[in-house]
Specification:
The protein is α/β, with parallel strands linked by helices. The protein is built from 12 helices and 9 strands.
Length: 496
């Protein structure tokens, strides 16, 4: 008897196709992981990173991340020397006294006569006070010679009044203090390098003295920082972003703590405010923006979504971040990623034309409504259609998902001419922090990090208004001690 068997070739073919499709998906995912790892290990410094949160579902390739070179106090080798049967006589610490200023420095002599009638007075001598001063390119000494007179009939002594100094009893004048601050926070020159530069002029200023001078300067301008904060929060449109900063922390095993600068910027008024927080949590921004009302543009970090639930805040997102994700997806799907990038570029071309023609807010809104809105509507519809045809975990799938989820907030800029298409203005203000980190590596304490936030705020506002920071800071330090506190806003860079 003949036995016949029927083979379902169609079913087998479909099974093989499904298995092949699954293998292709896995291949794409592994290729993307490999490309990312290559960037981590061999890419430029901007592309290289050490992930902090490891996904337990992510495959491990057994490659250890390169260790960041830095100061690790906790792991430093401790060496103890023991001397047996010896006693060391403890000598009392002797204060070296006031630092002597080198005779090679130029002296500018200022004679200060006492106020009052000196016609019947007899000159009895002089009292000299030397203040170390600075002007660009030259250290010099201001020598205040305060002439003293004895009143007739032993009625007392008349002496010239010494001008107020920014930091009481400090030999640093306002010009020198301003230059030290500008060198560090504008030109990114750490204090220890400034100390070395002073030593080349035969002037040995201890590092502790330099830090005290910077701290004293910050205490003096603290009211200005608070006034700037109040003015920023009165805005109706803010950019917001955050950036990390290493802070020396002796209580931590690693030696440093990862703190954050939260930055808030009004690009219309051209003012920026830095706030230091010990973490990246929502406590920082929610506390600062508790009473803020208006548009808030951010990069899509999860904390930002909390503000979407706040009635008085209208949350916006950044088109540059969406564009960046499609750029990263070019290797994965050049056709789709290229299509999205071409249309996003059209949106930026419209913004450039508005800027080149110096259009006002009403005109910008009109142009956006006529030209940008149709592009956004078409692009948004295309993204939704394409997303169902892509692998969600692929680079192009992630780029599409990111934009679709935030499309309404990405398109929101078209409803008001004062709004920006992206968050780039505040990212430009953060760049000095990134440059500074490469030079001074970390802040010495949480208090030092907060002082840095204060200076980045005021000097960043100077930059936005095209104000020469040294001149502004020197002039401010010369007058702030005697300036009425109820008129402190007059000294802000954009008001002075």
């Amino acid at each position: 008897m003949e036995i016949t068997t029927s083979i379902d070739y169609k079913s087998l073919y479909e099974q093989e196709c499904a298995a092949n499709n699954q293998l292709q998906i896995e291949f794409i995912q592994i290729k993307q992981q490999l490309d990312q790892l290559k960037k981590m290990i061999y890419g430029s410094r901007q592309e290289r990173f050490i992930p902090t949160d490891i996904n337990p579902a992510q495959l491990s390739l057994g490659i250890q991340a390169e260790q960041i070179a830095g100061c690790n106090i906790a792991e430093a080798k401790k060496i103890t020397y023991i001397k047996a049967n010896t006693t060391v006589e403890q000598k009392p610490l002797v204060h070296p006294g006031r630092m002597k200023l080198p005779e090679s420095l130029r002296r500018e002599e200022i004679i200060i006569e006492p106020t009052g009638d000196i016609s019947d007075c007899k000159k009895m001598g002089e009292e000299i006070t030397e203040v170390l001063e600075y002007q660009p390119g030259e250290l010099f000494v201001k020598k205040y010679v305060r002439v003293k007179y004895a009143k007739p009939q032993n009625a007392g002594v008349l002496i010239g009044q010494l001008p107020a100094r920014p930091i009481e009893k400090a030999m640093a004048g306002p010009g020198l203090l301003a230059q030290i601050v500008i060198d560090k926070y504008v030109d990114h020159l750490p204090l220890y390098r400034q100390m070395q530069r002073f030593e080349r002029t035969s002037l040995k200023i201890p590092y502790s003295t330099l830090t005290d001078w910077v701290g004293g300067t910050c205490r003096l301008i603290l009211p200005l920082y608070e006034a700037l904060k109040a003015e920023v929060l009165k805005s109706d449109y803010l950019h917001a972003d955050e950036t990390p900063i290493k802070v020396l922390d002796k209580d931590k095993k690693a030696g440093t703590h990862r703190g954050y600068y939260w930055v808030y910027q009004d690009s219309i008024k051209k003012i920026v405010f830095f706030d230091y927080q010990v973490s990246r949590g929502r406590e920082g921004p929610t506390g600062i923006l508790e009473d803020f009302e208006g548009y808030l543009q951010a990069d899509g970090y999860s904390v930002d979504e909390d503000f979407d639930k706040t009635k008085q805040i209208t949350l916006m997102h950044c088109m540059a971040h969406a564009r960046r994700m499609f750029h990263d997806a070019l290797d994965n799907d050049e056709q789709r990623a290229g299509y999205a990038l071409d249309h996003i570029q059209k949106l930026y071309t419209i913004e450039r034309i508005c800027k080149e023609n110096a259009l006002n807010f009403a005109e910008i809104k009109e142009v956006r409504q006529q030209r940008a809105v149709p592009i956004l509507e078409s692009l948004g519809k295309w993204m939704r259609e394409q997303y169902v045809q892509t692998t969600p975990k692929s680079a192009i799938g992630k780029a599409l998902a990111y934009s679709i989820e935030r499309w309404s907030k990405l398109s929101l800029y078209t409803e008001n001419g004062m709004l920006n298409i992206d968050n780039n203005p505040v990212e430009n203000s953060i760049r000095p922090v990134a440059l500074g980190r490469k030079n001074y590596l970390f802040a010495g304490s949480h208090e030092a990090a907060q002082r840095s936030a204060m200076l980045y705020s005021l000097l960043g506002t100077c930059k936005m208004h095209g104000i020469e920071p040294y001149s502004w800071l020197r002039n401010t330090l010369e007058i702030i001690a005697n300036h009425p506190i109820n008129r402190i806003k007059e000294l802000l860079p954009h008001h002075s």
